[in-house]
Design brief:
Blueprint: H1 2-7, H2 19-28, H3 59-79, H4 82-86, H5 99-106, H6 110-113, E1 114-115, E2 118-119, H7 121-127, H8 133-136, H9 147-151, H10 160-164, H11 167-173, H12 178-189, H13 196-217, H14 226-238
Helix pairs in contact: 11-12
């Protein structure tokens, strides 16, 4: 019943250019219910930049393109790749994103990339020479951060969690629905398993509350070190007038 409810939406809407990703977008859009003023409208995807001949591409090519512009570039490489590691003075190299390799793979027939539900089929054929069968044939495991166990039911729970998710703090920011957030936090505190959507919502709420606290509520309470004031003044003097 769960699988039917999750994957059974809009299955016949195959003419849609966004068919491959509609299920994900519609399900993840449910986190909007936590907003103080949630929109009741269905999400619109017409604003996504699509190439002129996109409609002529194969369904797999369309899906790959949507994944790149909505998930790979703005999320994976930003939040879990370039932006994150460069903040720690590390420069990453991603061999599978080499432009020559990408151009070559784009010219491969679709059945060499995906065979029914056999992902990475061609890569696995190459891996036969180097990997044992138990690795080649093992089930795919999702990459998930332990969100609930990090923020709840742990001796090392960050002090700011309860403060920022309290009804008082939620009402003060006026960004989220206090009742909805309270129900979510109570569920997490009681040790009940959170769904992936709930964990996404929890992360979004907590991150936004942190931003609100430091850059809105307490912004003027965080004086910069003297050295940073000097750098700001020097940079302002060097910059041309507007």
């Amino acid at each position: 019943a769960y699988l039917k409810a999750f994957f059974g939406n809009n299955l016949k809407d195959t003419a849609s250019l966004y068919y491959s990703h509609t299920i994900r977008w519609m399900n993840t859009s449910r986190i909007r219910r936590f907003l103080a003023k949630p929109s009741m409208e269905k999400p619109h995807f017409n604003s996504l930049p699509l190439p002129v001949k996109f409609a002529r591409w194969s369904p797999l090519a369309q899906a790959q393109y949507l994944e790149i512009i909505t998930f790979l570039s703005p999320y994976l490489l930003a939040a879990q790749g370039d932006r994150m590691i460069m903040a720690h003075s590390v420069e990453g190299r991603y061999p599978f994103l080499d432009n020559h390799l990408i151009e070559y793979c784009n010219r491969l027939p679709a059945d060499m990339k995906l065979r029914v539900l056999q992902e990475k089929w061609l890569l696995k054929q190459l891996g036969k020479k180097y990997l044992p069968q138990e690795i080649l044939r093992r089930h795919k495991h999702p990459y998930r951060a332990p969100i609930q166990s990090c923020f709840f039911n742990t001796k090392n729970q960050p002090q700011y969690v309860k403060e920022l998710l309290s009804v008082k703090a939620i009402k003060e920011s006026n960004l989220f629905n206090p009742d909805a957030v309270y129900q979510l936090t109570r569920k997490a505190e009681r040790g009940l398993r959170l769904s992936e959507t709930d964990e996404m919502a929890l992360t979004a709420i907590l991150s936004t509350q942190l931003l609100y606290k430091y850059f809105v509520l307490d912004f003027n309470k965080l004086p910069l070190p003297k050295s940073q004031y000097i750098n700001i003044v020097n940079n302002e003097e060097k910059s041309p007038p507007h």
